[in-house]
Amino acid sequence: MKTKNMHKLFLIAVSVIIFASCKKESENIFTMFTDVTVTYNNSDPRCVTDYKLVNDKDEVWIDFTINSASEDMYSYTIEKSSGTQTPERTIITINDATKRRSFSDIIKLTMNRDGKTTYRIYALNQKGIFIGDGKKSVTIEVKPSYMIYANRDIYLPDSIGKSLPSFFSLKDASGFSYTNGAANSGNIDFGIYRKLASNSTPTAIAYTYNLYSPSVAVNPLTVYDISAWAPKRTTKFSAPITGQSTAFLTGAVSGSTIETLAKARTINLDATAGTTLANGLNSGSAVFFVTPEGKYGMMYINAVTSDYEKRPFINVSIKVQR
To answer: What string of H, E and C letters represents the secondary structure of the chain?
Structure first.
């Protein structure tokens, strides 16, 4: 028995010795890629060297120098990271062979996204393999340039109680009923209503949903007399535009991008004029608008539905310039 145990111990000892003799020292990931350095230069007041707080539409420069001590750089990547989106990467070739160990350039940006955006520059060798980023990056933060109001319910008018919030303010996303609308008319941008589409029977999908400004020349909802309301806001609207989910979520990301999207549409209506569910205020569509103060905005329709008491309403989210 003792001989058997001794034999096992001998085998274990030999295995440890062999493993130790074959083991290769691996470089720590935190000490790798030290041959490349990146310097963010402060050559101009517009430059960012670490962190910079700016306004929407400001111009910001990234003046950088990237050096590689032991390996030629054949290209570099500009990596842009914003929020939870997948980073955007742009690869730029270094064509001048004399600059493959030290390369400088200035990236000029016009900021058009609220919040923080981080930029990282890293070098690639001849095979397109990462060789270092100097373990540095810069972050630019754009001050809030728009307001966002998510998931606000606007009810269809109730002609009996007249107490449901079927009027809406785009200034602060407040809802008003016909009962308290007159006292708050200076804040109301529109009301909503529905009517049967042509040649339809009264089912939920047979209706078309529209909005109208209190300043509209002819009130489309005669059951609510708003003729004496004063003052009346004169917000203008576009016709509903379908398929606007991506534009709302990832396109309208600053006051300037909201304005660009809005100005691409015709915004001249006091009331929308949809005749079917699809071309009225419908899920996935959006209405662009400009307020009397000159603020552009986008209202996205999340859903056209009913609550547990079967009272129909539309659920909207809004982005509007500050």
So the answer is: CHHHHHHHHHHHHHHHHHHHHHCCCCCCHHHCCCCEEEEEECCCCCECCCEEEECCCCEEEEEEEEEECCCCCCEEEEEEEECCCCCEEEEEECCCHHHCCEEEEEEEEECCCCEEEEEEEEEECCCCCEEECCCCCEEEEECCCEEEEEEEEEECCCCCCCCCCCEECCCCCCEECHHHHHHHHHHCCEEEEEEECCCCCCCHHHEEEEEECCCCCCCCCCCCCCCCCCCCCCCEECCCECCCHHHHHHHCCCHHHHHHHHHCCCCCECECCCCCCCCCCCCCCEEEEECCCCCEEEEEEEEEEECCCCCEEEEEEEEEEC
Q: Enumerate the CATH 2.60.40.770 domain ranges in the chain, comma separated.
A: 29-142
Query: What does the pLDDT look like over 46-101, one tens digit per residue?
Result: 999 999 999 999 999 999 999 999 999 999 999 999 977 789 999 999 999 999 99
21 pLDDT exceeds 70? no
User: Each residue of 162-189: pLDDT tens digit?
Assistant: 999 999 999 999 999 999 999 999 999 9
Cα separation, 211 vs 50, in Å, equals 48
- Which fold does the domain 29-142 belong to in CATH? Immunoglobulin-like (2.60.40)
